[in-house]
Amino acid sequence: MFTSSKWEEGKSDKGLGEQVYSGAAEFGLFWANIAVVIGTIVALGLIYWGIVLWRQKEKYSVSIQGKITDAQCASASDGKRQYQQCAIKIEYVVDGKPYNFETIRSDQYYAKGYNISLRYNPDNPVEATLDPPVKTFGQVMILVALVILAGVWINWYVKRRFKFAAAAGGVGAAVDMFRGGSDLIRF
């Protein structure tokens, strides 16, 4: 740890300030250890499910261009923000046969006559979606997991290496406990 052999032997010839400083550092290191365990477990779970989603056979595996044949858009509000909500009909052609796809979207404004990318099920071309493939979500989960892993392990390393960082983390964790917070992972 950070302490001298005199401190580990229980001798208390250090001043009160040094004792508080060392205690805060030990408490900060304790929370860093908890954060690294919890963060690693969460990250490993995200990596596992990210790989499962990434390797999953995509139902809507073929991308195609379709044309918006009808778009009924209206302003909507959820109380906090205002957005466009559109009921759209899209026509697309697979092997010379036309198919129609209808959906309601609120991510942007759609207009009749525009081309749009969609994905369809090659086993049943009538099934289509505008949403990105699930593989993208798996990749994002893995990326988030790697960021979490890097964050908790860098946090742990810094608090193990630098006593002042551990002391600052310990003071922050103690203040959070008194305020009723629950910040286990502090960067």
Quick gist of this model?
By secondary structure, the protein is an alpha+beta fold. The protein has helices spanning 5-8, 16-55, 134-161, 163-179, and strands spanning 62-77, 82-94, 97-105, 115-121, 124-129.
Describe this structure in words.
By secondary structure, the chain is of the alpha+beta class. It folds into two domains: 16-54 and 136-177, no CATH class; 62-131. The chain has helices at 5-8, 16-55, 134-161, 163-179, and strands at residues 62-77, 82-94, 97-105, 115-121, 124-129. A five-stranded antiparallel β-sheet has the order 3-2-1-4-5, with no helix packed on it. A hairpin with a 2-residue loop joins β2 and β3 (97-105). α2 packs antiparallel against α3 (134-161), α2 packs across α4 and α3 packs across α4 (163-179). The longest helix is centred in the N-terminal third of the chain and has 40 residues, at 16-55.
Put simply, the count of helices is: 4
Low-confidence stretches: 1-9
Mean pLDDT over all positions? 83
Structural class: alpha+beta
Please state the overall shape, judged from the principal axes of the Cα atoms: elongated
Strand tally: 5
Helicity level = 40-55%
Largest beta sheet: strand ordering: 3-2-1-4-5
How many domains? The number is 2
Largest sheet data: 5 strands, antiparallel
Give me the oligomer status.
single chain
N-to-C series of helices and strands: HHEEEEEHH
Alpha-carbon distance between the two ends: 20 Å
Q: Measured on Cα atoms, how large is the radius of gyration?
A: 27 Å
Strand content: 25-35%
